[in-house]
Amino acid sequence: MSEFDGKVALITGTTGIGLATAKRLASAGANIVACGIDRKANAAMQADFERAGYAALVLETDVSVPQAVEDAVAQGVRRFGGLDIIVNSAAVHPYGTVLDTAFDTWNRAMAVNVGSIYLTGRFGIPEMVKRGGGAIVNVSSVQGFASQQNVAAYAATKGAIHALTRAMALDHARSGIRVNSVSPGSVRTPILENAVRVSDGKDADIAAAFKRFGDAHPIGRIGEPEELAELIAFLCSDRAGFCTGADYKADGGLTAGIGVR
To answer: How large is the average pLDDT for residues 40-67?
Structure first.
């Protein structure tokens, strides 16, 4: 019997860490409800999962919209019979200081990166309670601890995820629901590729930039989505039964040191 046989996992984000996590959980028997706004990525994920024989429902969902999230949860419950796991991985990564970040951009970052966690919890937790509990993992970032310049909105949302994770863990522990977050350093994802194009130009050498980013991590490289997926899978599993209200860094040692040499 596989570790997640019979479990139903709702995952936001159909690229990067979200996609890798969906594959990891599905490979261990979970039924996947994936929510993403990128139609091309959604279609590729659905086709990939069908080829692999995984049980998956991939839905075009703007996770910042209450009705869209409520509908996604309801569709997943109808298809698979309940909900046991939520992984909140969807994110946007705007650039700018508070002086040059438009108010609409600020609000969109808050609505997607933080509001989606509120919404999946609001509509998903009642279904998890019916199953006797479950696990929620929120994908934050090392930017919630120490920020780069020119990412005011993004860093603010990642710090908010840490606080919201603690609050949810306390509020729902007695219902058998564990809530944790993970904070990656630089990981090979579409968001990181976009960061390169913002900093180095649209024709930037992605591989060279990833090496540069990797050199900033003590471990000497950037992370892979599959490595984050392993940590998330552990936190979703019964093996992490005493873990709740905490953040787990997977940052290649990035935040372990200081800049002075």
So the answer is: 97
Using alpha carbons, select from 197, 185, 254 the residue that is nearest to residue 225.
185
Q: Tell me which residues are annotated as active site.
A: 154
154-199: per-residue pLDDT in tens?
A: 999 999 999 999 999 999 999 999 999 999 999 999 989 888 888 7
Count of structural domains, the chain: 1
Asked if residue 110 belongs to a domain, the reply is yes
Domain that holds residue 189: 8-250
CATH number at residue 160: 3.40.50.720
Whole-number Å distance between alpha carbons of 69 and 83:
14
